[in-house]
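This is your field. Have a critical look at the following sequence-structure pair:

***
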Amino acid sequence: MIDGNGSYDSIEPLLELDDFGLLMIEQPFRSGDFYWHRSLQDKLRTPVCLDESIRSYADAEQAWALQAARIFNIKISRVGGWSEALAIHELAMRHGLPLWCGGMIETGIGKAHSLALASLPGFTLPGDLSGSERYFEQDVLCTPIRMDHGYIEIPDGAGIGVEPDMDVIARMQLDHWTFHYQL
């Protein structure tokens, strides 16, 4: 696969890639440019994958309606949280659209959320997720998420499966607020 990261401004150079048998061409045109993605997908056997263009369920619905791609990459933080991610997942499941979950520069807490999403049915393509110690010298988890020969075991604790290390968080925080709610 290749990731254009929105850097292409014409279809012609992408057409030449069709003979390489790629799994996908990810986000060749700028974010939200469903017209050019659709135009390209119409001319390729290779599936186009939308990443940065899918910022919400509405984007995913429009991309599907226009047939702008045959694969979606879902990132929880990019689409606005779990509700949007699950709605996009359900749309893809209804239409048999393959999914994969992309990682971002995030702590182990964010990675645990992405792993939980990537473990759902329909996520049939390998994600680009990594261990929780990849970007930070000290992560905020009691037990780090580790990559082992290209695989990550999905945490099996309560909730998203991980426990934040509150001592590490306390050392890193600049300020905090406490809120009390009465019912």
